[in-house]
Queue: 4 jobs
Job 1
Amino acid sequence: MLRGMCWGHWIFQLPIIPMPIIRTRKSPLEGRTPRSGGRGVVALFLVALSLSGCDANNAQGDFRIAAGAVPSGIFRTVDGMTPLNGENDPDDWRTAPIYATSGFRVNRRASPNPVQISGSGTVTIEVVTDARIPGGLQLVARDGLGGRTVLTPFIDTPQGFTIFTFFASEILGAEAGDLWRLVLFDNRGEPVTYGDLKIEQ
């Protein structure tokens, strides 16, 4: 199957092979039209499976688009857990649909946020997952103008907690007043979660 193509696009193009009817002895039902319910059950199962696959692909596609959008709003925090002054962007730090059943979540959002570009402190993100993510995760910063900085290499992400850290000054081109989108990618290039970081002097 081609990547990105839902099963429903081609499943009904498959030939239907009639099943042979085998009679080994006469039956009181002899002469009646045999039923072909088996093929109907299989067809319904395949339709349900294809629709499920399409829904998952579409949901991840929407998430991918959102992750690549222009940064807007932040989860204002010092500790990564408690929002300050009620500033909590609900779009930030969601889990990608393809990882919805993995137990993945962001335990501590990017903090501190905002961060001082002239400061020596580090920005920390802590994630937790119920199962190891093959190939690990990579942290990337993006702005709304095409700027992109890889902040960490792919870091092994085993079951349990993983911490990502970086200095705000490592974001190439970052200036006071900027908003940058932080995205964690898996080794297939799929965004797993994302959130925005505000830069201050």
Job 2
Amino acid sequence: MNIMLFIVFIINVAILSSIIYYLKRLETIGCNCALNFKHDYIMYFTSFILLFSVLNYGLINVPSYRLFRLYIYIPYVIALIFNIVFTIQYVNEMKRLNCDCSKSFYRELMYILAILQAAVWTLLGLSFIAILVMYPQSLKILFTDKKFWKKYLNKSRTNNAL
């Protein structure tokens, strides 16, 4: 497998594991000012992303898994946007409440990553809109071209496009 893909995978797993560790630690020490529905959402969604990352890495060349990813992509993006918003709000609330038991490097890491994700998703959204405005025929291809999707789902093992 591609060494860069493996390095990105390891970094991703380390960051996600660190966030889960931090959130579980808040529960363990009984940090009541940090325990709310946003904490739970971030914890469960981060756990899902960790599992999803492991599956993506292990099953990247399996065509049926590619189809599965295609089906869950829109709900995944919506849930990811909620996670980004909740993470930013969650960290800001803990700071506003002066929640001393939640102070940690991991809290700042969560905040910085959420801000970076928000910036990246905003740029991706704006790029997508710009492409649709400049090339309106691309929308037709995206939703109606069966050859495009068949080719996309049958990519060779050497191309790790998704």
Job 3
Amino acid sequence: MTVFPRDPQPIPVLKAYMERHGMALSALRPDGSLKLQVDTQYRVELRPVGAGQLAMVSALVRLSGLPAASRDAFLARLLWVSAGLVREHVCGLAIDPSRQRLELQQRLPHRLDVRGLEDALADFVNALAMWCWVCRQEAPRWFDVPLEIG
């Protein structure tokens, strides 16, 4: 589990990204994060994590209220899939215990420019789309009710 600390200071590359895409700085949340809607279906949060770095975070599956045994087996299966993809994707799965959800997270490197942020965001959204698909494929094996995915 990775819990990123909050940093309320605006990150220069995030401000530059917002300017490039015509976003007002007022779109930044009080903690300095920015929530994006990508391809009309994927929500990604660009979150300051201290020392001038950003992380990308997106909810995959709401876990609260799911039967513990099925939930744990489902998560074990997803971790098994994740282990097979570790060389292809720099993002990873994590559980946000306060929100009771499975997330996809990626910490971005220092000294990232706007183009690097755009490229990283595109790669992250591609990985997010794949993980949403995996969750939809796996969920019926473990649960009788549809899951809230994405």
Job 4
Amino acid sequence: MKQNFPNNIELDSDIYISDYTNFTGNAPVKGVDITNELNDIFNLWPPLHISNPNKVPILVANMERNPAVNKRKDGTLCKQCECLCISTQCAEDDVPWFALVELKCCQDVDRNIRSNIENALFKLKKHHLHLRDEKSIITKGMFHYYWIISIPTSDRPPFMRFLFSQDSQLTLGEEFDGAQIIGDNDILVVDGSEIKGLHKETLL
């Protein structure tokens, strides 16, 4: 898997993922930043927090720094999400987890929370299909698949309740290799085969 995303980092700690594209202050980078260290800037522009208490080894790839994998055969670029995270160790009788991460970071995000979620889902669908059908990097049953939608500037998680009924979420998962959608700003790494949002989804 590493060869498909050559610009990656491996961490067995908590992970903080930020997108400073729309941040107007002094940011560490212009775009997506991935770190395992707390930063004072988080008080102004909060990140997605992936809590990893059991120190599961995780491969993290910033898709902005892996442009080659986003190219289609015709040379055009796929709609990609911010990054992906993959557990690299799990029980012998199970498979690892694979998470596509999409962040929506902007001021007054709650005014358009539904449209932000719809836009995030569009990109996650396109990226999953691209990695599966165009690049043949992932296949059904190879991983436990998760799509993470994080809106760090919103204090209203879980987010999928704004868009989905339980049946529609299950149907979407069946179409995309069993992918589970998590709409949260705080993710818990349970082990090498499972992650979950810390705010319980109450679907309509």
